[in-house]
Amino acid sequence: MKNEIAVLGGTFDPIHLGHLLSAHHVKNILSVKEVRLVPSSQPPHKKLPESSADHRLAMLRLAVEGFPGIVIDDREIYREGPSYSVDTLNSLRREVGLRDAIYLVMGIDAFSLFDDWYRCDDICQLCHIIVLKRPGYEVNFSEEMNGWMKDRICSLGQFNDQSGGKVCLLELEQVDISSTEIREAFHRGLKPSMHLTSKVENYIQRHGLYRGAHIHA
Known about the structure:
Rossmann fold, seven-stranded parallel beta sheet, 7 strands
């Protein structure tokens, strides 16, 4: 039996329905055993999260209830130093083995800067990269990214039993919301209920997260 998994990383500050629906659709489309949501501790490409690791993990665990096959992987939270994807994938590869595929899932905006990621070539050797793009959305990649993608790009069904090394752009309808917008809504005293599960919203209210204007140090 194949042990293939998909990996969706981020700060999840907070996790919202867009994350959950994307993970659910990816699981069904790729027919993987599970999708792992991997919250970062020290994201290399973003500001430090506003809420603590404990709060973000608690919200994640509440959010995935009712989504079978979507699980939380907390290895980056408890690993010291920057949360580099290559370290996470090396760790996962040791667990999954060399034969089964690992799919790293990311949005098109993050992928457009992928050639700036730490050890991006090594990342792609460890996994296939699934890039989520909205139908009809066009992106102009840099000359460097186009060159990097040239021999790696493929479509679904063209992975040829390889465990990694390919890039697939997957058109997927997505919820048009971000965690940043949700935090800003809470800062203004609003309740963006339609973008959160009820348990996550209740947790935020109960613990007083994202209250008032927040300024990162």
